[in-house]
Amino acid sequence: MAAPSTTSSTRERLVEAARELFWLEGFEATSVAEVLEKADANAGSLYHFFGGKEELLLAVLDSYKEMLFRMVIEPAIRDVRDPIQRVFAILEGYRRGLTYTAFTGGCPIGNLALELADHDPEARRRIAENFQGWCGWIQKCLEEAGPRLPSQVDRAALAQFVLAVMEGAVMQARVHGSIAPFDASVAHLWDYFNRLQAEAASAKG
Amino acid sequence: MAAPSTTSSTRERLVEAARELFWLEGFEATSVAEVLEKADANAGSLYHFFGGKEELLLAVLDSYKEMLFRMVIEPAIRDVRDPIQRVFAILEGYRRGLTYTAFTGGCPIGNLALELADHDPEARRRIAENFQGWCGWIQKCLEEAGPRLPSQVDRAALAQFVLAVMEGAVMQARVHGSIAPFDASVAHLWDYFNRLQAEAASAKG
Predict the structure, then answer these.
(1) Which residues of chain B lie closer than 8 angstroms to A29, CB-CB?
(2) 3-class DSSP state for residue A143?
(3) Do the chains contact at B128 and A166, CB–CB below 8 Å?
(4) Is the pTM above the cut of 0.90?
(5) What is the distance between the alpha carbons of residues B18 and B21, in angstroms, rounded to a whole number?
(6) Local structure of residue B3 (DSSP, 8 states)
(7) Is this complex's ipTM strictly greater than 0.90?
(8) Is residue B98 within 8 Å of residue B179, measured between CB atoms?
(9) Taking a C-beta distance cutoff of 8 angstroms, is the pair A167, A98 a contact?
(10) Which residue of chain B comes nearest to A103, CA vs CA?
């Protein structure tokens, strides 16, 4: 197996450094100089790979899409077989992230969504693709739940509802510096799912 | 009645200009020069009233708290008597805002929450107070619904769930440039409320 070439690893270091800084500091608050310092790279190599900070952002958003399964979905669901439990295991991953980081950071895509949606159509499109990817995994779980959810429930719409709850719950946990609003939101989502399952069970029985 | 003094109206113009720019551009992306230009004020008057952009932000956040009832709650609920319908009328206000602004802007408090929660404890505290104010109004509606919701439902926690759905739904509408994910999320929240009301009705009957 060949070692990664220096050029590709410099590019990767730039994307990784930008990913972390955009996540923790925000896109606008991060300077190119900070990215270069963190990546241990010089301006020449950044402009060799990217037209500038905006293009680096697009690469960061592409990297999130590529990492979604490996970094978010797979670690959450690998020990959970039940498809509905899997939905909540994915939410539990965000809970773990919040408590691990003392309520900083949050969801990197949500942060960039609110910072950039109005100003950068290319970034917005990639943020939308990240949301679609995430919702796609939730929808897959909901489809695997089959008759355990009422047949009339639109699985794609329900997945967007789950994403709304996650993003709004993460936001409140960060603002309050407390996991309580996250837990309150997820508990009500569980309650809703229990009611959906009860209806499906009674329709079958 | 005395006319507003010049000094107080300069201060108000600065807060108003900053409020709009922080909302539409973000805090970090807004320069002091832009605020001054929009407010038709000079640097001297800004530094007369505020220590700098950070203090101006705190004044903006205080102004949102003061405006909540008049600008968000009252226009939404004034023609709606039913307390549960009032919750959804408040959400409908955000829907109207999103479609009116072609999915830009969104919730100003949510935007500042994700941009600033990690970096500015004073701003974070005021953002939390804004969320508490908003949830307080939702909770009041839920309490007024009385026996129409199951007695074991924690009204304060349910209000945080409603806020989570609103913030996550607004975020997705902005990213997708479409009201569909907002409507999908609110439809599921309605479905949840209908199920809660059905349970309360059957427990009574």
Answers:
(1) 28, 119
(2) helix
(3) no
(4) yes
(5) 5
(6) P
(7) yes
(8) yes
(9) no
(10) B118
